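pipeline/complex-builder :: batch 7 item 3
reading input block
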Amino acid sequence: GENVGLHLPTLSVQEGDNSIINCAYSNSASDYFIWYKQESGKGPQFIIDIRSNMDKRQGQRVTVLLNKTVKHLSLQIAATQPGDSAVYFCAENGAAGNKLTFGGGTRVLVKP
Amino acid sequence: DSGVTQTPKHLITATGQRVTLRCSPRSGDLSVYWYQQSLDQGLQFLIQYYNGEERAKGNILERFSAQQFPDLHSELNLSSLELGDSALYFCASSRLAYTDTQYFGPGTRLTVL
């Protein structure tokens, strides 16, 4: 989950297809993970979260998978829509308090 | 709309100046966080307050300070501004002090000329 600076991987997906966004987190002690969506000019918007005692959680059209063995988190978006075009960030909470460490983000572009 | 409000939306100032950013958390949230988002550093945690007390500190410069008031709103003060301080500053809030969902405000875009 370390910030990777300017490099922002991009995922291009056809409207209606499923999207999978991956994230590697850094702290094996992290016990809470969140996915955020950020549209241009807006603040990060909460999508879904998962705690370390779970390996899968589903929401509306979204599923988060957690693999603690390899410190990997993924977000699956079903039937991707044009409104899903945004930058997606994973965040981990492994420190005292509620400090979030964000990944570098993935840009999702939905082609009509 | 997350329920977190931030003012101002945009701020343009000169190097060496001081500015104050304001945040009101969601109703019922006791914890407030400040984050900086810049092109070269991504989203970085600055500081957390819970019910008026500082709870956690991140990569916050000594020129920056924050506080949370009894009505739970928070202010982030940035002084002796440098060009590199130009960034988006986000406030987030949560009900609990730990392991709780943080909801972000719309941000303040600071431009230092």
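note: Residues 1-6 of chain A have pLDDT under 50 and may be disordered.
queue -> next item
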